[in-house]
Amino acid sequence: MSTLSEESRQIVASLAHRVGPNVDTARIAQAIVSTLQDMNAALTPIIGQQGVVALYRRSLHLCVSVHPRLADTYDSVQAALDLNALKSVLVEQSETDALFFGEVLLTTFYELLTTLIGPSLTARLLRDVWEPSLSDTPSQENSP
Amino acid sequence: MSTKVTINRLATGVPGLDEVLGGGLPEFSFNLIAGPPGCGKTTLAHQMMFALATPERPALFFTVLGEPPLKMLRYQQQFDFFDSEAINHSVRYINLADDTLAGDLDEVLRRIVNEVETHSPALVFVDSFRSVVLASQTQDNPNNNLPQFVQQLGMLMTTWQATTFLIGEYFNETDTNPIFTVADGLIWLRQSVQRNSMVRKMEIMKMRGQPTLPGLHTFRIATSGIKIFAPAVLSPVEAPLEYPLQRLKMGVPQLDEMLGGGLPRGYSLLVAGPSGSGKSILASSFLAEGARNGETGVIAVFEQRPNHSQNATLATLINNGQVGLVDSRTPDLSIDEIVHLLLSEISRLKATRVVIDSLSGFELALAPTFREDFRESLSRMVTALTSVGVSVLMTSELEDRYTDLRFSPYGTAFLTDAIIVQRYIEVESRLLRIMAVVKVRASAHSDELRLYRIDDHGLQIGEMLSDQEGLLGGRPTRRHLGKDDR
């Protein structure tokens, strides 16, 4: 992850920004899901729904193999890009665990896409996912 | 004042393509890029797209079934023309896989029109169109509405002032496909395989409203993208010879005398001789003489190990930049590619003297598919070179046969304006060399068979062997002295 330190820092910062000042599990779950929705919205027009689902499943698989302790919790959500299922699992975790998982999942997704289409194009396609949340106005109205 | 519509022609940004298209790509045309898998259709589309798209008039690239977009982005990035910053800015990818899978062409058309109205693109690409066709055929309705779909798409895109490309795999150009009728342009890409060589070729089968260059044009795909080798443009009227002929010195004074004062400027000269007879040495003295007079030259070397065949004089000239070296060891060359390399080097150096060493190596360097047409190819090359005004010296390996007098193994002697032939002869248990000028078009020249030798200073031409006869047979005999000589 060292090569993507700048990007992972950005992802972590963006996630924290979406969670806002009052940290609780529900907000964390919502922030993770809304980020995934934004990534989905940015990528689907270009690589298709199936392409995004495939990337998501591969990212989950990688997360679980790198951090085996996550396996028990997240095995159930590997079926498809079912963000409601993911959210319902996330809200049952502790704040620290949920946030950790969110950071790992989003960073893994980003890294995976980078290995496929390179850093500059990945940054180009996902720029809008991070940028609005780094502006001054907290964007917490991203709920579906 | 003309009230005819003016069709703008877009510069495609693909080297050679504008020439082949007959002056560029007609704006708002509806085109098909066709060919078997792996022939470069998607690459061609991307190269034009990145060259032509602007933020104001972007390009829309619709991906349908076929190559997954993720892979396409991965591989197209390898080319220099790919610009990540242009994505979502002047270039937009739109995935239509789900709509196509449903097989509903009306829905596909609606999506395309919707996006076109939103972005007002200058360029629209649909890749691969073949899968749209296949999807429509899987419908329950056997009379699929493809012709209608193509017709509507073609009309809509032109009305929306978009230049459109459908990219599709077609193996057979005689397919009765409605697209072929509707399309304004048909660009066909091919891969011609013979033995273990592969040559890429492009044909403009149709381009409404402009004179395209007919025939198959070879191209290569490199990291810079596609490069097409359009045939050299020949001026329709060749300048007539000017008298007195201006002559170039060969660097061998006695040979200049034999040629009637040197090689006339703009002539092509064939130097034919057996291995080791000094053809390359004559060629380098020709270039060195040019350099002495402030002229530049170009040499094309078609040998397996060009560095080993260079003599010191030539190496110096190349290092000094007085002679440009065309040393293409790329396999499977086409004649147009070689002419292209030569002409660009000639114009870079403003060269007046060109050497091709040798025709035998040149033939080996050509892809096998072109060898059958070697005489034609050679003729085109000689014409292309002499029409830009350079003087050309070509060497040709000649198997020593003492039963006939041949100048080249290709029957190409008629192509050149002048011919010098070199032979070995046996005299008193020594292998001697003789040389003769066989032909100099529109000029008097010597008819002597002259002895010559090669030393550190190059070719040294000596006397005739007037007391010997049967020289061309290789084993001359001392002439029987007649009464007058006694």
From TrEMBL, chain A:
Highest taxon of source: Bacteria
Protein name: Uncharacterized protein
Organism of derivation: Pseudomonas mohnii
Automatic annotation (TrEMBL), chain B:
Limits of the KaiC domain: 8-242, 246-475
InterPro entries: AAA+_ATPase, Circadian_clock_KaiC-rel, KaiC, KaiC-like_dom, KaiC_dom, P-loop_NTPase
UniProt keywords, alphabetically: Hydrolase, Kinase, Phosphoprotein, Repeat, Transferase
The keyword Nucleotide-binding is annotated on this UniProt entry: no
Pfam families membership: ATPase
Enzyme nomenclature, EC number: 2.7.11.1
Protein name: non-specific serine/threonine protein kinase
Species, as recorded: Pseudomonas mohnii
